[in-house]
Amino acid sequence: MVTRHGPKVHRRRKTEDPHWKAFFSEDSPADVEEARRQEVLDTSLADIGLSVRNANTLEEAGIFSVRDLSKRSRDDLLAIDNVGERTLIECRDALNKLKVPHPNWNRRARRKRRTKRKKS
Known about the structure:
By secondary structure, the chain is an all-alpha fold. It has helices spanning 18-24, 29-41, 52-60, 66-71, 74-78, 85-98.
């Protein structure tokens, strides 16, 4: 039988990992969800999967994070040079993937079709 000399050493998992912090903390699940939401909103545009050209264009206009992008209206974004419908679609898809709401980005309202009047 082999005996160890010295104090017994236990390896502990680092609690700096955010998933383990959530597990060990006494915060409610709502607090953990709010912290995750804030982390997503502070993510830079380059990290959410936008193309380089679109990310650079938005950064030149002063939009650096997901929070900045979600606050802008559709018309504000279209007023930026080199931003068009395809850029909006790409941004909308990236925000949908992150589950970030953007209620003011509806597509252009389509005109109602005129109905033919019946001749009397």
